[in-house]
């Protein structure tokens, strides 16, 4: 019986792999139905596996806050589904798709917050590592094909055809098929592909013992090289800031507790960045080496406001400001009630999304009150995780959760990734891990 239980736990490896790699599976079968595969495996697991006996205890405030956050989110998703169904503002297929994408991932939270064990967490982390390795290898291959050879992979063509089939239209984003442009990789966008490469690094750092410093630095170094090759600037920035803040403990600056060791860590990350760029510069053909120099100029120009990123000659910061201040009028003209409840989660109803300002698109979805509620809740949760690391800086599970949340939050400044099918599921798993870590019986990866 014990052996059978152990084999059932291994389903979590398949669940994570199927969550991340669901787009290639859908493209392979030219059908959206495989998206249900991770939930099919999940329901098989909970049907056969005996749940852990729940012990009552007084919840901590952080657990109550997470419960409230997930509960309000769930109600909002179901509310939008219900009213759009009753008023027929979206098609049945679109509504069901939104329910599967935005509601189903909450199942992971509600189950794992009470039933996750050290073994399950270990398998989840292994699954993230394996998925990220697969995504990373293909990301490098796809980038080489498009940036160096100027060729479009067969997979990119198949994804484009699948998107046309799903949307029943030829008016889709064809950026994936542009030669000598950055590649999208295996997943929906280059941002999502970059994110899973980073998440694999975060998982590996959680699994590697703290004293194996060289191994940890090597994992970070390899990840940086893959991200630089992928040329997703937001992903690079989010990864670097997350690693600096949490892995190298620079978050202690917020309480002025940084030490000489912390300053040494800053030097390490600078050396890693410089070495990564030099290696990429040397291995690139001479005609492509200018991409590295452009990368070095990109971030200073972006942050200073000198970089033009729009067709109307507006900089990124100017465009972000225009979008934020123009939001109330735009939403009021389209759907006045959307200022309070957002425009929902379907594709066919709501303001256009998929642009350069993820934080504005999130505002579209949730409306002003819920947007502020969720943003404040996430900031408070990250602050709580930082405080936990002040007390116990070696808690790798808390570090993993903080790395994921900080990365996703930074990404909001440009491209939203939280609403990706795979990343949303991971976020609910992370919330469950944080919840479990604040129970009397915590989970641990230490032997």
Low-confidence stretches: 1-6
Oligomeric grouping of the chains: single chain
Q: Helical proportion?
A: 55-70%
Q: Categorize the overall geometry.
A: globular
The number of distinct structural domains comes to 1
Q: N-to-C terminal Cα separation, in Å?
A: 23 Å
Structural class: mainly alpha
Largest sheet: none
Radius of gyration equals 22 Å
Mean of the pLDDT scores? Answer: 84
Beta strand %: under 5%
Number of strands: 0
* SSE sequence, one letter per element: HHHHHHHHHHHHHHHHHHH
* Individual helix count: 19
State the gist of this model.
This protein has 447 residues and is an all-alpha fold.
Write up this protein.
By secondary structure, the protein is mainly alpha-helical. The protein has one domain. The chain is 69% helix and 0% strand. It contains 19 helices and no strands. Helix 18 packs antiparallel against helix 19. The longest helix is centred in the last third of the chain and has 34 residues.
Topology:
Elements: H1 2-9, H2 11-20, H3 22-29, H4 37-48, H5 61-86, H6 92-102, H7 106-115, H8 118-148, H9 154-167, H10 190-207, H11 213-230, H12 233-247, H13 260-283, H14 290-304, H15 316-334, H16 338-341, H17 358-391, H18 396-411, H19 421-437
């Amino acid at each position: 019986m014990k052996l059978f239980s152990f084999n059932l736990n291994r389903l979590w490896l398949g669940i994570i792999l199927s969550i991340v790699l669901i787009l290639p599976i859908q493209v392979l079968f030219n059908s959206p139905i495989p998206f249900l595969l991770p939930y099919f495996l999940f329901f098989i697991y909970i049907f056969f596996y005996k749940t852990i006996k729940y012990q009552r205890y007084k919840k901590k405030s952080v657990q109550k806050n997470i419960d409230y956050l997930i509960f309000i989110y769930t109600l909002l998703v179901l509310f939008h589904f219900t009213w759009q169904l009753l008023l027929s503002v979206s098609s049945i297929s679109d509504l069901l798709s939104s329910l599967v994408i935005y509601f189903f991932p909450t199942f992971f939270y509600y189950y794992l917050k009470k039933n996750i064990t050290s073994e399950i967490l270990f398998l989840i982390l292994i699954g993230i590592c394996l998925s990220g390795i697969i995504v990373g290898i293909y990301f490098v291959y796809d980038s080489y094909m498009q940036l160096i050879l100027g060729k479009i992979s067969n997979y990119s063509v198949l994804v484009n055809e699948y998107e046309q089939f799903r949307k029943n239209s030829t008016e889709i984003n064809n950026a994936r098929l542009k030669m000598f442009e950055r590649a999208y990789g295996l997943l929906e966008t280059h941002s999502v592909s970059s994110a899973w490469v980073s998440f694999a690094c975060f998982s590996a750092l959680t699994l590697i013992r703290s004293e194996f410093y060289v191994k940890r630095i090597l994992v970070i170094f390899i990840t940086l090289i893959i991200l630089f090759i992928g040329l997703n600037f937001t992903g690079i920035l989010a990864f670097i800031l997350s690693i600096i803040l949490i892995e190298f403990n620079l978050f202690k600056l917020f309480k002025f507790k940084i030490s000489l060791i912390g300053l040494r860590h800053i030097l390490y990350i600078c050396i890693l960045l410089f070495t990564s760029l030099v290696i990429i510069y040397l291995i690139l053909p001479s005609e492509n080496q200018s991409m590295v120099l452009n990368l070095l100029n990109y971030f200073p120009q972006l942050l200073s406001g000198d970089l033009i990123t729009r067709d109307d000659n507006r900089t990124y910061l100017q465009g972000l400001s225009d979008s934020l201040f123009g939001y109330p009028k735009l939403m009021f003209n389209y759907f006045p009630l959307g200022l309070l409840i957002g425009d929902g989660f379907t594709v066919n109803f709501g303001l256009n999304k998929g642009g350069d300002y993820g934080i504005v698109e999130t505002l579209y979805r949730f409306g002003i009150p819920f947007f502020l509620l969720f943003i404040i809740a996430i900031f408070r949760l990250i602050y709580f995780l930082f405080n936990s690391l002040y007390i116990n800086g070696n808690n790798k599970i808390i570090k993993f959760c903080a790395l994921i949340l900080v990365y996703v939050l930074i990404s909001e400044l440009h491209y939203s990734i939280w609403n990706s099918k795979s990343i949303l599921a991971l976020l609910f798993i992370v919330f469950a891990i944080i919840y479990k870590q604040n129970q009397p019986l915590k989970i641990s990866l230490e032997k």
